[in-house]
Amino acid sequence: MPRPKQMDKMAALVGRKVPQKPGLAPNADLPAEYWQAILDDPRADGRSVPSGATLRLNQIPGHLLRVGCRRYSRLVEIQKADAARLYGPEALWKDVARRLLDNTCVKRTGRHEEDGCWPTLE
Q1: What is the value of pTM for the model shown?
Q2: Residue 14: predicted pLDDT
Q3: Of 74, 76, 119, which is closest to residue 94 (Cα–Cα)?
Q4: What rounded mean pLDDT belongs to the chain?
Q5: Of the candidates 85, 89, 65, 86, which has an alpha carbon nearest to the alpha carbon of residue 75?
Q6: Phi, psi angles (nearest 5°) of residue 74
Q7: Tens digit of each residue's pLDDT (9 = 90 or more) over 46-93
Q8: What residues contact 63, with CB distance under 8 A and at least 6 apart?
Q9: Taking each helix axis from N to C terminus, what angle separates 93-104 and 80-87, rounded to the nearest 10 degrees?
Q10: How far apart are CA 115 and CA 102, in angstroms?
Q11: Is the CB of residue 110 less than 8 Å from the CB of residue 116?
Q12: Mind spelling out the 3-state secondary structure of 9-37?
């Protein structure tokens, strides 16, 4: 247990870390910068931001595609040219990744509920 002198030092340090500007009250209006950031977000008017999973193979900039399995800690890599040749350049990356993992999965139990991998797209 700290001695009284040490407790006084700790109490003095805690008092200095108090924020100088108080936060907003629960019923206060939010700042204009907050609302502008909301409106500037591309999802604000229904525009969708393309994620790596929804990209087609011909839209992916890299030449090496990598998908991992969260369930079995496996990693499968394929070159973009090979994936386009096998699955077509218009194929969705998430569909290609699912097929790659399912075709190379080595841990099969025979039960539909237990089989399969959990992909992570990189």
Answers
A1: 0.52
A2: 74
A3: 119
A4: 79
A5: 65
A6: -105, 160
A7: 666 556 667 888 888 888 998 888 887 888 899 999 999 999 999 998
A8: 79, 80, 81
A9: 90
A10: 9
A11: no
A12: HHHHHHHHCCCCCCCCCCCCCCCHHHHHH
Torsion angles phi and psi, residue 35, rounded to 5: -65, -35
Predicted confidence at residue 86, as pLDDT, reads 92
Encoded tokens for 86: 């096998």
For the chain, give the percent of residues with pLDDT over 90.
11
Closest residue by Cα to residue 119 from 104, 101, 107: 101
Give the DSSP per-residue string, 54-80: G-BGGG---SEEEEEETTTTEEEEEEH
Return all residues near 78 (Cβ < 8 A) that are at least 6 apart: 64, 65, 96, 100
**Cα 70 from Cα 90, distance rounded (Å):** 26
Cα 98 to Cα 68: distance, rounded to the nearest angstrom:
10
d(CA 69, CA 117): 6
Tokens of 31: 């700042």
Neighbours of 98 (CB within 10 A): 17
